[in-house]
Design brief:
- It holds the Pfam family EGF_laminin.
- It is found in: Secreted.
- InterPro entries: Laminin/Netrin_ECM (IPR050440), LE_dom (IPR002049).
- Its main location: secreted.
- The chain has 142 residues and is mainly beta.
- The chain folds into two domains: 75 residues, Ribbon (Laminin); 47 residues, Laminin (Ribbon).
- Helices cover 5% and strands 35% of the residues.
- Strand 9 and strand 10 form a beta hairpin.
- The longest helix is centred in the middle third of the chain and has 7 residues.
- The radius of gyration is 24 Å and the shape is elongated.
């Protein structure tokens, strides 16, 4: 469901807007922006001119819930995942010693270093032992 937020935005005269008929008024043009799509994960939104220039959409959401991020709360925060856009983003919890990165895929599985296995990269594979800072060490004679 789209969250519809109405808010006023002051667009400063530095935008090269020429308001000759409004010479006596302040150098601002007030616009009513009718909608800010926060993917149902925020109730706060501000106008972002840089985003507007780059995308044509100036509404940027604030304080995204459910571990989401992005201008429209449309993606998971770093080191979080979800299976579908409707789901809450969950922490990846990749093992810092056994995983290549702390980011996982959309199922929560982490990318493991050589000799390490498990969804969170927390177990040594056969022929390896002692999970530590560099991953698992190769067993003697392997």
């Amino acid at each position: 469901m789209n969250l519809v937020l109405s808010f006023l935005v002051a667009v400063h005269s530095s935008l090269d807007l020429f308001l000759s008929s409004c010479a006596s008024s302040p150098p601002h043009l007030y616009l009513l922006l009718p909608e800010c799509d926060c993917s149902g994960r925020s109730d706060e939104c501000v106008f972002d001119m840089d985003q507007y220039r780059g995308t044509g959409s100036g509404g940027r959401c604030l304080n995204c819930r459910d571990n989401t991020d992005g201008p429209h709360c449309e993606r998971c925060k770093e080191d979080h995942y979800r299976s579908s856009p409707e789901d809450v983003c969950l922490p990846c919890n990749c093992n810092i010693n056994g995983s290549v990165t702390q980011q996982c895929d959309q199922t929560g599985s982490c990318v493991c270093k050589e000799g390490v296995t498990g969804e969170k990269c927390d177990t040594c594979t056969p022929g390896f032992h002692s999970l530590g800072l560099g991953g698992c060490r190769r067993s003697e004679g392997q």
